[in-house]
Write a structure and sequence with these properties.
35% helix, homodimer, alpha/beta, Prot-tyrosine_phosphatase-like (chains A, B), 207 residues, EC 3.6.1.52 (chains A, B), five-stranded mixed beta sheet, two-stranded antiparallel ribbon, Protein-Tyrosine Phosphatase, Chain A, inositol-5-diphosphate-1,2,3,4,6-pentakisphosphate diphosphatase activity (chains A, B)
Amino acid sequence: MGLLIEDDNDGGEVLIPPANFSMVEDGVYRSGFPQLENFGFLSTLNLKSIIYLCAEPYPEENLRSLQSNNIKLFQFGIQGKTDPPTPMPKDTVLSALRVLVDVRNHPILIHCKQGKHRTGCLVGCLRKVQNWCLSSVLEEYQKCAGLKWRQRDLAFIEEFDVHGLRQCLYSIIYQYNGYGLKRRKLLYQEENLVVQEQHKPQATKGW
Amino acid sequence: MGLLIEDDNDGGEVLIPPANFSMVEDGVYRSGFPQLENFGFLSTLNLKSIIYLCAEPYPEENLRSLQSNNIKLFQFGIQGKTDPPTPMPKDTVLSALRVLVDVRNHPILIHCKQGKHRTGCLVGCLRKVQNWCLSSVLEEYQKCAGLKWRQRDLAFIEEFDVHGLRQCLYSIIYQYNGYGLKRRKLLYQEENLVVQEQHKPQATKGW
């Protein structure tokens, strides 16, 4: 009989996920800002990359953890709460989305500060790429934003155009075989790979 | 570059997840009651089993969909809202948990009516098996229950003893290899498999 525990936790250590943590897709996670106490939990995810959506520099402690686990950091600086509100920058979200849908970066964690607005917008755009109906996309956004959901985020997600992204993408094929084993194949389309490289942000890598 | 769409949806069909849908773990999903309009989305999950937590018979339409997709139904009849409230039955939740942690039943969808209380309690117990700290378990319960969260469900999850379950379990090993490919190995422990079979509920199978 199988027990859903991670391979590096044999039942002894209590795991503390980051605030507002949840799983988005196979190999895609979202959360609020990871604290020191969450590093043990995060190590069970075997992350390859992190998408960080705040403008502030990544804390030294977190950088060290990424370094020791060989995790790439993709930072896309988006302003948090400002007065008057700063509109969510479409181009930046599109760039983040390009990193997010590239399975070579998975397993990947998306986070901002609370995991509600910036992260919620990016995940919402991903769901549109995945062809989810809009009401389900907005329901998911609201579930993770709780009482702090913002009308302007919903409008941003609704208006976000994913057709441009679709045109430069090919597809992941999910294959399910046998006992819960799930496989993805990444199919390349050479021309599009070139397009992607041009838009790739600078990754902090290989310290 | 990889696009996170399912293999049987090439971008044309709009997918409608069931209400309150979310991913719990690799191969474990939760939601409210699936309706006809959700069947297209559910087919992309390649489900092997469903855990259904209500006392009411499964609708004929849903049964037909399970049959044509060769999906096993595990029903554990738990009462919904009653006056006075019926306590969540520990033994039934434990039996459902046994089915849930057995990766041979994955990919699996857990659902009740709203995906809030009965489903939330079962997922909460799973998180305890996974050694999540209690505050994170309760945060997840509340996120999916929204304004309808119940104090007695939180108390149930807190009090639920997973040690009995742990003793008859071995482990899943997650292995992450290369481009987003994620593998699980199921390690068997023969004695425990026997224990599990004795507790296995009647599954609706192979119509």
